[in-house]
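Late entry, written up from scratch paper. The run itself happened at the end of the previous shift, but nothing got recorded in the book at the time, so transcribing now.
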Amino acid sequence: MKKVHKPTNNLWLAEELWDLGAIEFGSFTLGRTAVDSPIYINLRKLISRPTALARCAEIIRAELEALVSMRNPQVQPFTLVVGVPFGGLHVATAFSLLVNTPMIYCHSSAGKKEGEIEGNFVTGQSCLIIDDLITGGGSILETSSSLLKSGLIVRDAVTLVDRQEGGMEALREEGINLVSILTLEQIANHLRYSERITRSQFEEVLVYLSRSRGTT
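Output as recorded:
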């Protein structure tokens, strides 16, 4: 019998993604960093469930407010929200609407000059970059580079899921603090505990993460 397990904290997001069919198991190559990954998470499916997308914005706000209110604030004030195409645009738009903060984004493909910024801004404004998922950090770093070239300030970034494959460390090297709502390991743990995946699938994820971290 499947265990009845009510998600706590941010694990509701793992439940939503599972119900949306956004979590798949197999063998996936996801860009330069994630090669032969046993798990694929497609957060863009959140657009099919507006209540979940809105809740993502709410939890990001709560996380940021908590970090800002600390004696030694872990997140800096910002006046612009920046979405990373394409997955991050949906999350950033929901958050921008919730906190009533203007949003911009950088073009990354044909149609406009790569790196060109869409939206209004003033040199010297502080930006909060938002993406749906981070692997090696390349997309956020590319966005940050375009923002810096335009005279904007980048100190913090937020992602819904950190695949724990070096992205946080890569951002830290460039002076960017990363806030993640869930990690890949937390998602795998929850899915195994609630008996949604097999022990074999769970162990494959752990082995993959250990290999990615260079601990095997």
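The chain has a mean pLDDT of 90.
(Scratch paper discarded after transcription.)
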